[in-house]
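Q: Hi! First time asking for a complex rather than a single chain. Here are the components, and I think there are two in total. Is that enough to go on?
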Amino acid sequence: MSEEFAKLPPQVQERLLRLQQIQQTLQSVLAQKQQVELELTEIEQALGELQKVADDAVIYKAIGSLLVKSDKAKVAADLNERKELLNMRATVLGKQEERLRSQMKELQTKLQQDLAPVSGTQP
Amino acid sequence: MASKVEEELRRLSVEMRILEQTAETLQARMNMINAVITDLTYANITLEGLEKQKENAELLIPIGGNSYIKARLETPDKVTVGIGSGVSVEKTLQEAKDIIKKRLEDMEKNRASLQQQFSQVVERINEDRARFEELAAELRKENPSKNV
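A: Yes, that's all I need. Here is the structure of the assembled complex.
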C-alpha cells in the first residue's frame, strides 16, 4: 500500500491524506453529536417524568456521588438550561458535520478525476 | 467462470466481516442489558424485603468493598428512585416497586429482541460460511495449483 501510495503524484498523495484527515474529524464529530443527542434524550425523559410528580414532591439532584435535596422547579430549570446548551452544541456539531461532508465530497470528486487516467491505463 | 466465483467469494468475505461486527455489537448490547437486569433484580429483591421491615429496623448499608455501615430505617415507605440526568424522586414503596417492575419488563423485552436479531445474524454468518467453503472447494478443483 505505502509503495503504491509513493508512486502517486504528490498532489494526489496530499489529497488522499487530507481526505483521511477529514474522515477522522467527521468520525469524531459524529461521536460527539451522538453523545449530545443521547444526553438530550435522557433530559427529555427526566423532564417528562418530572412533569408527572406533584409540585411539592421531594426531589434530589446528583452532585458527584451525593444526592442533594432540591425541588421540582429548580431541577426543571436546571434541566431546561442544560437542554438549551446541548441543543446549541448539537446545532454547531451538525453544521460542522455538514461542512466536513461537503469538503469530503469535493475532495472525492477531485480524486476521482485525478485517478481516472491512472486506473484507465491499468490492465 | 473462475472470476465470477472469486467475485462471489470476495462479496461473501466482506459480508461475513460486517455480519461478525454486527454480532459483536449486539452481544455487547446484550451484556449491558444483562448487567442492568441484574441491577434491577437486586433492587426488586431489596424492595420486597424492605416491605417486611418495620420503622427503625437496624440495617447494614453496603459501601462497596464488601463493607457495611450501620443505619436505621427511618421511613420504610419512602424510596428515592432515579429518573435520569442525575435527578431522583421520592416515591412510596409500592410506586418504586411498580417502576422497577416496569423497567425490568422493558429490559426483558429489549433483551429478547436483541437475542432474536443476534440469532438471525449468526444464522446468516453460518449460511455465508457454508457457501464460502463450497465455492472455495469449487475453485480449488478448477485451479488445483492456485492457493485459495
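A: The beta strands of chain B are 58-64, 67-72, 78-84, 87-92. Let me know if you'd like any chain examined more closely.
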